[in-house]
Design brief:
alpha+beta; 7 helices; 13 strands; about 20% strand
Length: about 300
């Protein structure tokens, strides 16, 4: 069974896909960026990485295989173990092998695993249909500078030309000016009248409003106390997972230890895999969660970031 197809399917929806006994594939969202050297624009994507520190079976891959292959969970576990045995044999013989649409895994001289991600597939669903494109550099500023230099070198001077104006055109111009002046005077009188009437209406309305306010003030016998409305807490979709435990008692022990250490820890309800996840805390942005994870992994290398609205 080629399990890389199922790993690839899970990477679209999950940030961490663990292959029991081998390692885990992690995904991190990379924002869109511009490569200025050749004016290329790249869409946002998920960057795939690999770690050997996460090997415990969290049930995600096995359950997905069992559901897709219409088989039992135990058979799925055996299929994963058989595939891992094949991977390790290939590494010992060839030194590397390729997982389709995921990347290449190689065995180094120090007997460590080196992962090189594939760049032919974007696992970020929000970036579906977006591709890399090149936009030529805009030369607007250079052209503007060239025009300014030409104007400085050869300034243009205009010499007014004197022409004789016929007498009848002068009289026509005077007539038009007279009509314009008359129209302006009439328009000003009209506008003054409108402003005066508007002021009278506004004054009357203001008096009625003030009178209503005074009457309302004297009619109130029992003023109502002010009511404070609770403000909804802002959603924090980024969480650092300390671990997922099949035994609820173990999850509670870890929760108590994290709380004593000062973390805003909490335990989630049992998920569909029968596990009880325990969180170090939740964060508003990915940057805040990543900064906290950097400190946490010093004491717990298996801590990872969960992106989910709880």
């Amino acid at each position: 069974m080629k399990i890389e197809r199922y790993i690839s399917e899970l990477l679209y929806r999950h940030q961490c896909v663990t292959v029991p006994g081998f390692g885990a594939f992690l995904s991190e969202i990379q924002s869109a960026y511009l490569y200025e050297a050749n004016h290329s624009f790249f869409p946002p994507k998920k960057v795939i990485s690999f770690t050997t520190h996460l090997k415990n079976n969290d049930g995600l891959l096995a359950n997905h295989i069992a559901e897709a292959e219409k088989t039992s969970y135990e058979n799925a576990i055996q299929a994963i173990e058989s595939e891992i045995a094949i991977w390790k044999s290939i590494l010992q013989v060839n030194g590397n092998f390729t997982l389709k649409n995921i990347g290449e895994i190689a065995l180094t001289a120090e007997n460590n695993l080196l992962f090189t991600p594939a760049d032919n597939l974007n696992y970020l669903p929000e970036a579906f249909g977006l591709t890399t494109f090149v936009s030529p550099k805009i030369l607007r500023e250079e052209l503007k500078k060239e025009v300014q230099e030409l104007e400085e070198k050869a300034p243009i001077q205009f010499t007014p030309e004197r022409r004789k104006t016929p007498a009848y055109l002068k009289y026509a111009a005077i007539f038009v000016l007279a009509l314009t002046a008359t129209g302006s005077v009439g328009l000003k009188l009209y506008n003054d009248q409108i402003e005066h009437e508007t002021l009278l209406v506004e004054t009357a309305v203001q008096k009625e409003v003030q009178q209503s306010i005074q009457e309302a003030t004297f009619l109130i016998q029992n003023p109502i106390c002010s009511v404070s409305l609770p403000v909804a807490a802002e959603e924090m979709p980024y969480h650092i997972v300390a671990g997922a435990f099949r035994n609820e008692g173990n999850a509670n022990i870890v929760l108590q230890n994290l709380t004593k250490q000062g973390y805003p820890a909490r335990r989630l309800e049992q998920n569909k895999h029968g596990l009880f996840p325990v969180l170090y805390g939740s964060y508003l942005t990915y940057a805040e969660a990543k900064a906290a994870q950097t400190e946490i992994v010093k004491s717990n290398p298996e801590a990872w970031i969960l992106i989910k609205e709880l």
